[in-house]
Amino acid sequence: MATTGSPNAEIRPGPPLWLLAELTYRCPLQCPYCSNPVDFADQGQELDTGQWLDVFAQARAMGAAQLGLSGGEPLTRPDLIELVSGARELGYYSNLITSGMGLNRDKVRALADAGLDHIQISFQDAEAAGNQLMAGSRKAFQHKLEMARAVKAHDFPMVLNIVIHRHNIDRIGDIIQLCLDLEADYVELATCQYYGWAHLNRQGLMPSRAQLQQAEHVVADYRRRLEDAANPCQLIFVVPDYYEERPKPCMNGWGSMFLTITPDGTALPCHSARQLPIDFPNVRDHTIETIWHHSPGFNHFRGDAWMPEPCRSCDEKHEDFGGCRCQAYMLTGDAANADPVCAKSPHHHTIVAAREQAGTPLDQVPPLTYRNERNARLIYRG
Ligand code: FES
């Protein structure tokens, strides 16, 4: 693969501060809002232990400080402890992003001993039925509760993540209460962002504006109550950009600080970029230094020379970078377009239409397509 010739090759970014290692696409759960690619079943062979450790070392030498270990479910990797231990030796602040499935008390202890800094466990809902509806597992809820307690018992910062969508948003108070009962330090109430499987299932997941406003009241009320608590839990409520009039500065700008490595070693500026019609390099073929500074894929949307109107002459372009390239591609067919979330975009009507559809009764929208290998193969092959 060629690694030179980008129109933005003269732009020299800072180091990739945040390395996301997607160790595997394997996962025992089937969440229909997973941001993994819909064709994950047909991806190449996973990097082995030595290849991952080499990636960690190269990125660290360039200045990477934060390491996210995610998937799929990273606990399905039998070498996870070895990878955590290697990350610790290199001096990373490491974060395991997990469903909790595959975790047990011995593994929590082993991860702590290996030097892991942080475990983030995801829940689907405040109760077993809602959890099962999304995760596709009857046993998951109870197991997650036990593992959240085990994580707390080992003095990890307790970080819980719950993806919010139209099926659970009306129970957001119960979800917060569950997190407080588990003595969470941070709670991410992350309203679904429509990438990967979530984009496929958008109609069945997107809450209405009325649902969202009610949820914001509930979160604000909890925040007020927590102000005087001895150890206040931080509630982070990520609202969906589909209800905004200006786009998010996705990844803080393309190729500016985030580096994602997929299970097969493909290097991406964000977790969703592989769907774009851009040739991305692989760590099996190139060094991280070459990939970060010289590959056409990473230079493609650096700077602002690539921007068409209305972004090119917009006085906000250095704040939002034109929004999200992946969203522009999914909604307009051209990743260089302004993110349609922006009210100045000629494609903003696609966002307005999605908002209007969001209140459609569930019996009038397509059923959810669950993230599993069978569906992945069916979708990929059409
Ligand atoms: Fe890829 Fe926003 S998710 S640029």
UniProtKB/TrEMBL annotation:
UniProt catalytic activity: [PQQ precursor protein] + S-adenosyl-L-methionine = E-Y cross-linked-[PQQ precursor protein] + 5'-deoxyadenosine + L-methionine + H(+)
Swiss-Prot/TrEMBL cofactor(s): [4Fe-4S] cluster
Documented EC number(s): 1.21.98.4
Catalytic EC class: oxidoreductase
This protein's UniProt keywords: 4Fe-4S, Iron, Iron-sulfur, Metal-binding, Oxidoreductase, PQQ biosynthesis, S-adenosyl-L-methionine
Record note on cofactor: Binds 1 [4Fe-4S] cluster. The cluster is coordinated with 3 cysteines and an exchangeable S-adenosyl-L-methionine.
Function according to Swiss-Prot or TrEMBL: Catalyzes the cross-linking of a glutamate residue and a tyrosine residue in the PqqA protein as part of the biosynthesis of pyrroloquinoline quinone (PQQ).
Family of the protein in this entry: Belongs to the radical SAM superfamily. PqqE family.
Assembly information from the UniProt record: Interacts with PqqD. The interaction is necessary for activity of PqqE.
Protein's UniProt name: PqqA peptide cyclase
Organism name: Alloalcanivorax balearicus MACL04
Gene that this polypeptide is encoded by: pqqE
